[in-house]
Specification:
The chain has 920 residues and is an alpha/beta fold. It contains 36 helices and 31 strands. The radius of gyration is 33 Å and the shape is elongated.
Length: 920
């Protein structure tokens, strides 16, 4: 991706290609170089190319960061390249870094390929030192501004570069305001700030063990290294794991000439969105803060004014900003998030990016852009994803009874920053949020404002509530990115983190009290507010029609995108369902059949005693009697299922789990028998049951007597199930139905197992056909859930008409994991250490399990070209996994009914993605 055309030869000392270019001027890059320049650098270059007012600067590439992270040293050529670009910047600006009478000041800001708001480091005002601060004051004609800029530099540099506890600076600042009798920073004058600078320098010397550097180039070099190092901070790694961002990308570093929003009331800084990131509605959205620098807005320390107010504050800048916003949205063909500064009436663009948005906004904006002719339907499909659709299906609050009697009480209202309905116990710090969450408690994290160090608590919480900040504060931006409910700027709430409480109107809410927050309205309640189904679920259930006059706007957008996904997808979507009720719901949600009916679920409840009789049978006659009792019940189950899915395929898995699962717990039964014997009241059936439990006990039941092995060891068991399926299909056919049953043999490891069971099944089906006079087109296949089955798929396909990959057991057997054990023991450590980016039980392990799936598909189809292929593990509803299954050529995925819409959407996205339809 480098624009340097010289041949690149690696040197053995550094491993870096000779002639590799590590620094790019803003005039050299473009928006397509995000891998190299990071998102921020690429977009600064793009705005520069568009002729927008961007302060001059340059970008140090992600490749330089990678070298630094791998070797612990910057590339040998980097310092000279930075010096050359700094010389060019100084020439362009007519001032030098370190110049005493008119200093050039720069910012050093991180910028990875993917947006990681607040997770990495930024330092502003680099270039100020004891001598140059006077020169800055003279040039600006504002002594207060100069000392304010200097104290900000020492504070940011001390915390970010030298590792000083940021609270020490904040406490000194608060003490200065208290001594002056003021509440906001802008009321401190030059003399106050000069004293504060001296205090800050003492804090640095004491805590960092060195003085604040007076050499501006040293400041810049140390800041660049600090940005590189910030890629691997705990909070950055945690955020990457949460957002599934690869850990080897590195960050770029942007060195940009400073423009100042803290020069007085004709200056300021703000964040703008070309559409509302919370709802997707068009309009003027954002926050503005007079006489401030950018970090003040994002931190939420001072409450902002709505961006629309800028029109009355500085109309010329406002009009220019509106024009630029329109230019950027048309150019990027998407919602843009913009950071800007106004310096004495001059507008400057500091950043733009495709903005993070809520799930609802994503669907609305995608369809709006289609209507505007900016994108087509295929690209609209790439602008949304299954995780967002799943979020839209969560329940929302029913607040009709709130505030009445003893029900939930409305405490106040803030800014609806990220939608959703969240209920939990109030906690006031991240540590408690994580601790309580791990204990199974649902919590709401309440802060004055959040900062990047709160990330782990934000992830653990059901929702986030702050008393300060707006839609562009740290809490709002991060919550929207995570799909987490958030209410910001609830000024009525007085949050006291030290005493772990908040107060509103004389009412005190202590830590542990239950609160509810509504991220769609901004309302905050004391107590638990009841929830109602979301309109999107009502739409999928068929109770709300997208074309109706009173149709929800969001539902209309979801309907349009789902309709397009259904038109273009190749993968069919089935449901995992075991009864008629689930099957009918799945059908309403768009299921095209049942990919997994687990017959063991039909043996629970009152039928458990019949299974016990089967297990305890000592003779063939007793066994046949037990099976005859089960047969009509199974047949009725299948008749109902085939009726609910009439005309669609229904894959029935024969009994899979170990028989001991149908027997009482060994400890409980042993105690019962012992107590009965002590009373000389022994129960013969309990004694036989205990003997059976001991006999069937296995050290590792997952790999024991289960699946096809049951059918081979217990005579008549699978034959009974096949007969029930065939008789039910015949009954439905004679009732003018269209049953399409598929019989699936579980846990096959060798073709011989399948051949024996299939021969018996074919015989039973033929008997039913003869007895009922009905021709049944039942197919017989197997689950591929053992590595050996995948490796011998070509042989197994000789006896199987279809494969269904059981990816849960396949993952367990490939990894050597017992899921129930490992998820509770060491998975958390594996995720924290980066061994897993995500659990292989959530998203398919493409390199291991996926490799077996891919080879089994190829071998199976080589033997039987018309082999039907599907997947019936919960991976079938995981967005990323669906794309993999599309790629390897499966015919369908199957998942739980609630995830069917997600699988439909992702199957469409996979088809559109393979045709290349995202222009961003």
């Amino acid at each position: 991706m480098s624009e340097n055309k010289d041949p690149q030869v690696s040197t053995p000392e550094s491993g870096v290609p000779q002639g590799q270019k590590f620094v790019y001027d803003f005039t050299e890059g473009n928006k397509d170089l995000k891998d190299l320049l990071g998102g921020k650098g690429a977009n600064l270059a793009e705005m520069t190319n568009l002729g927008l007012p961007v302060p001059p600067g340059f970008t140090i590439t992600t490749e330089a960061c990678k070298v630094y992270l791998e070797s612990g040293q910057e590339p040998a050529a980097l310092r000279d390249e930075v010096s050359a670009h700094l010389d060019a910047l100084e020439a362009r600006m007519g001032k030098k870094l370190g110049q005493v009478d008119d200093p050039l000041l720069v910012s050093v800001r991180s910028g990875a390929k993917f947006s990681m708001p607040g997770m990495m480091d930024t330092v502003l005002n680099i270039g100020l030192f004891d001598d140059s601060v006077v020169g800055l004051a003279d040039q600006a004609g504002d002594e207060r501004f100069a000392w304010d800029s200097y104290r900000r530099l020492i504070q940011m540099f001390g915390k970010t570069v030298l590792g000083v506890d940021g609270d020490l600076f904040e406490e000194a600042l608060e003490a200065a305001k208290e001594a002056k009798g003021v509440t906001v920073d802008v009321d401190l004058d030059a003399a106050d700030l000069k004293k504060l600078v001296e205090q800050f320098k003492k804090i640095v010397s004491r805590e960092a063990g060195r003085d604040f550097p007076q050499d501006p180039r040293e400041q810049m070099d140390l800041a660049i290294k600090a940005v590189f190092d910030s890629w691997n901070t705990d909070r950055a790694k945690l955020y990457r794991r949460q957002e599934r961002i690869p850990g080897d990308l590195g960050t770029a570093v942007n060195v940009c000439s400073m423009v100042f929003g803290n020069l007085g009331p004709d200056s300021g800084t703000g964040v703008a969105f070309t559409r509302d990131p919370a709802s997707g509605h068009q309009g003027v959205y954002g926050d503005y803060l007079q006489n401030a620098q950018g970090e003040d807005v994002v931190a939420g320390i001072r409450n902002t004014v709505p961006l629309a107010d800028l029109e009355s504050i500085d109309k010329a800048s406002y009009d220019q900003l509106m024009q630029i916003m329109e230019t950027l949205e048309t150019h990027y063909k998407d919602l843009c998030d913009i950071e800007f500064t106004i310096e004495r009436g001059q507008l400057w663009m500091l950043q733009t990016r495709v903005g993070k948005r809520t799930a609802g906004a994503a669907f609305r904006i995608a369809t709006q852009l289609v209507d505007q002719g900016l994108i087509d339907e295929a690209e609209a499909l790439q602008r949304v994803n299954g995780a967002q659709l799943a979020q839209l299906m969560f329940p929302r609050f029913d607040d009709t009874g709130a505030g009445e009697g003893t029900g939930p009480q409305l405490l106040g209202r803030g800014i609806a920053a990220s939608p959703g309905a969240a209920v939990g116990k109030a906690v006031f710090d991240s540590y408690t949020a994580v601790k309580w969450s791990r204990s199974g408690e649902k919590v709401i994290l309440i802060r004055r404002e959040t900062n990047p160090d709160d990330l782990d608590g934000m992830i653990a919480a059901e929702g986030i509530l702050t008393s300060r900040g707006g839609k562009t504060s740290h809490a709002a931006v991060v919550a929207r990115g995570m799909g987490k409910t958030c209410v910001c700027g609830a000024e009525e709430l007085e949050v006291d983190t030290k005493r772990r409480r908040m107060t509103v109107g004389g009412r005190v809410i202590e830590e542990g009290d239950v609160v509810s927050i509504d991220g769609s309205t901004g309302k905050v309640y004391l107590g638990e507010v009841p929830v109602v189904p979301s309109p999107v679920v009502e739409y999928f259930e068929g109770r709300m029609h997208a074309g109706a006059d009173d149709a929800d706007e969001l539902v209309a957008s979801v309907h349009r995108i789902m309709a397009y996904a259904d038109r273009v997808r190749r993968l069919r979507v089935r449901a995992n369902a075991d009864n008629a009720e689930d099957a009918m719901r799945a059908r309403r949600f768009g299921a095209q059949g049942i990919g997994l009916c687990r017959t063991e679920h039909m043996f629970l409840g009152e039928r458990r005693e019949m299974v016990e009789k089967l297990i305890l049978a000592d003779t063939d006659a007793e066994r046949e009697t037990a099976l005859e009792e089960l047969l009509p019940l199974q047949r009725t189950d299948f008749v109902e299922l085939f009726e609910a899915m009439d005309g669609l395929p229904v894959t029935v898995r024969l009994l899979d789990p170990p028989l001991h699962e149908f027997l009482p717990d060994i400890t409980e039964l042993s105690v019962r028998v012992a107590l009965a014997e002590s009373r000389k009241d022994a129960n013969e059936n309990d004694l036989r049951l205990l003997q059976a439990v001991h006999k069937l006990h296995e050290q590792n039941p997952m790999l024991g007597l289960r699946g096809v092995r049951l059918g081979l060891v217990i005579p008549g068991l699978f034959a009974m199930q096949v007969r029930a399926i065939a008789e039910a299909a015949a009954a439905r056919k004679n009732a003018n139905g269209d049953p399409r049953a598929e019989i699936m043999i579980p846990l096959v490891g060798t073709v011989q197992e399948l051949e024996i069971v299939r021969e018996e099944a074919d015989q039973v089906i033929a008997e039913v056909e003869a007895a009922t006079g009905t021709e049944l087109k039942l197919t017989i296949g197997t689950m591929i859930e053992l590595p050996r089955a995948a490796l011998t798929a070509g042989q197994i396909a000789e006896a199987a008409q279809f494969f269904s990959f059981g990816t849960n057991d396949l993952t367990q057997t490939v990894w050597g994991f017992s899921r129930d054990d490992v998820e509770a023991s060491f998975f958390t450590a594996y995720l924290e250490k980066g061994i897993f980016g995500v659990s292989p039980f959530e998203t398919i392990d493409k390199d291991g399990v996926g490799s077996l799936v891919r080879s089994a598909v190829a071998a199976g189809r080589a033997t039987r070209p018309d082999l039907k292929l599907g997947v019936c593990g919960e991976h079938g509803g995981d967005p990323e996994s669906v794309h993999f299954f599309h790629e390897v050529g499966l015919d369908y995925v199957s998942c739980s009914p609630f995830r069917i819409p997600v699988a439909r959407l992702e199957a469409g996205r996979a088809a559109a993605e393979s045709q290349g339809s995202d222009s961003r």
